[in-house]
Amino acid sequence: RENNRETKPQNLTRVSEFFLTGLSDDLELQPLLFGLFLSMYLVSVLGNLLIVLAVSSDPHLHTPMYFFLSNLSLADIGFTSTTIPKMIVDIQTQSRVISYVGCLTQMSFFMLFGCLDSLLLAAMAYDRFVAICHPLRYLVIMNPRLCGLLVLASLFISVLVSQMHNSIVLQLTYFKDVEISHFFCDPSQLLNLACSDTFTNNVVMYFVGAISGFLPISGIFFSYYKIVSSILRIPSTGGKYKAFSTCGSHLSVVCLFYGTGLGVYLSSAVSTSPRKGAVASVVYTVVTPMLNPFIYSLRNRDIQRAMQRLLSKIV
């Protein structure tokens, strides 16, 4: 294993595994990290699963907004399951080695669910725009066919983005090192280790970033620009509050998802320590998917009632 960590470029055929540095080398911290991440992962999966079950079991919640919410919860379960279980196992077994195929698979699913999260948040913003700006035509515009198409299109684009990224990595022939300064196979970290021509990689990376980041954010900004303009025209304060409260939860999740992602990007650009970037990544890979169910359930009485009915049936 140690021999694999030499710094000279290695032929891809000889690189069968990578070494993940993790969050900390301190042995005393490992049990604490294990307990913390295991509990956060369980809360995240159970919370999002409860949202999915509550929406599917309650006929009152069979509306476009909750349809998108349940799909977002499924994407969040996939997103956290891509990175955290492997990290928990690594802490427990004191092994930080990941095979080349395992690394590629993890990176592929990370890109897939991350992009899907982003596109679903954009679809939810469009749903809120139609609900507030065109309330009388809401059910006609946001029909089940369109909602299904939006989710399928988001999934198709996410798979496309993921496979495009994979095609770049598969073309890499040499690596400077096999040590990845992260707790998972971060796409940018792996490309930084490559010795091949970076121009093509950068072009595709910018293209991937535009599809999975810039376009959804632009759509969300445009939707909320229209929403705010529409709300400001409402004469009564009560009417304004009622209209804005319908998109309060979504706006909170959007700020949390993109705010933490941007924070990690900026911190990694400013900081010279890759490990600090890895610690910051915990926020959007674990904390954000864990908080989403709480944000929606705490701010939404319909979800609260559906969850109470679901839990009473289970109990």
From TrEMBL:
Compartments where found: Cell membrane; Membrane
Gene name as annotated: LOC122213298
Function noted in UniProt: Putative odorant or sperm cell receptor.
Name under which the protein is recorded: Olfactory receptor
GO molecular function, a single term: G protein-coupled receptor activity
TM segment ranges: 32-54, 66-85, 97-126, 146-165, 203-225, 246-266, 278-298
Entries under InterPro entries matching the protein: GPCR_Rhodpsn, GPCR_Rhodpsn_7TM, Olfact_rcpt
Naturally occurring in which organism (per UniProt): Panthera leo
Keywords linked to the UniProt accession: Cell membrane, G-protein coupled receptor, Membrane, Olfaction, Receptor, Sensory transduction, Transducer, Transmembrane, Transmembrane helix
A GO cellular-component term linked to this record: plasma membrane
